[in-house]
């Protein structure tokens, strides 16, 4: 069997297992949580949020929501979704069974890693759709908010989300290795939550936090155009991808040489 067939077979197997877990529903719940909260906020504060004539209400609605939710929510979500997906295997001793199968270990490791990334991408997509639908709903119920009178600047908002997603790659690599390595659900979850909180605190010092992966999601929004560049590319983007590649390679090597009991 070729490498591509091993990989695709692993992906199909992981997708089937994901559908039967809470991790699948978490992608939906997480995506709609903040849009629902913003709907409630707009309902109670509607009179103060009615835009002036000619002002596009989508700008404040979208930017405020993305800027206030993704920096703090995404690291926590990655820690939780990664731990949950791997707990499926650890709980049922599935790791031991998988490594006993006549398939290469790399297809198992990177197949699961791909599923984690896919789950995060799906959450981003659901999140953006939920924001748009919540704005349209508010526009129908309260026409004076003006959401139906202007089109949203999709590319601007999608760019913000894509920047946040790429900035999260460092956390994905670290958390996936930890979740794969330790059977105890509490270890990667507690470690990740602790570092995510530290990342929020450390982000107040951009000169130092650009080297701390758990701060990257915050910095991708807070610094914006002020982000330091390396060869014309955001330093957080480069460091995040480098961290992901290094931790993924190290994680696979560690698992490959590990005696699974």
Question: In a nutshell, what does this entry contain?
Answer:
Helices cover 77% and strands 2% of the residues.
Write the layout of secondary structure elements.
Blueprint: H1 3-18, H2 22-44, H3 46-49, H4 57-91, H5 94-100, H6 105-141, H7 154-167, H8 169-181, H9 186-202, H10 206-209, H11 216-222, E1 229-230, E2 233-234, H12 235-257
Antiparallel strand pairs: 1-2
Characteristics:
261 residues, mainly alpha, two-stranded antiparallel sheet, 12 helices, transmembrane, ABC transporter permease, transmembrane helix
Structural account:
With 261 residues, this protein is mainly alpha-helical. The chain has one domain. The chain is built from twelve helices and two strands, in the order αααααααααααββα. The protein has a two-stranded antiparallel sheet with strand order 1-2. Strand 1 (229-230) and strand 2 form a beta hairpin. It is globular and about 65 Å long. The relative contact order is 0.14. Pfam families: ABC2_membrane_4. The chain crosses the membrane at residues 21-44, 64-86, 115-140, 160-178, 185-209, 229-253. This is ABC transporter permease. Keywords: Membrane, Transmembrane, Transmembrane helix.
Basic shape: globular
How many domain regions? Answer: 1
Rg computed from alpha carbons, rounded to a whole number of angstroms:
20 Å
Content of β-strand: under 5%
Structural class: mainly alpha
């Amino acid at each position: 069997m070729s490498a591509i067939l091993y990989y695709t077979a692993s992906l199909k197997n992981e997708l089937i297992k994901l559908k039967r877990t809470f991790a699948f529903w978490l992608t939906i719940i997480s995506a709609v949580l903040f849009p629902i909260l913003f709907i409630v906020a707009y309902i109670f504060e509607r009179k103060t949020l009615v835009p002036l004539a000619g002002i596009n209400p989508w700008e404040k609605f979208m930017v405020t929501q993305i800027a206030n939710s993704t920096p703090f929510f995404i690291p926590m979500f990655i820690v939780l979704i990664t731990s949950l997906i791997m707990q499926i295997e650890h709980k049922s001793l599935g790791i031991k069974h998988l490594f006993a199968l006549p398939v290469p270990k790399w297809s198992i490791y990177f197949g699961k890693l791909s599923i984690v990334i896919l789950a995060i991408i799906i959450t981003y997509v659901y999140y953006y759709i939920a924001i748009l639908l919540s704005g349209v709903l508010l526009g129908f119920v309260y026409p004076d908010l003006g959401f139906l009178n202007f089109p949203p600047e999709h590319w601007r908002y999608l760019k913000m989300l894509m920047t946040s997603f790429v900035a999260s790659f460092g956390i994905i690599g670290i958390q996936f290795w930890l979740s794969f390595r330790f059977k105890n659900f509490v270890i990667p979850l507690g470690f990740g939550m602790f570092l995510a909180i530290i990342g929020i605190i450390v982000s107040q010092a951009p000169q130092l936090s650009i080297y701390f992966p758990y701060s990257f999601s915050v910095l991708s929004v807070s610094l914006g155009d002020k982000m330091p560049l390396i060869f014309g590319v955001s330093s957080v983007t480069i460091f995040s991808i480098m961290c992901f590649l290094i931790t993924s390679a190290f994680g696979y090597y560690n698992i490959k040489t590990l005696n699974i009991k």
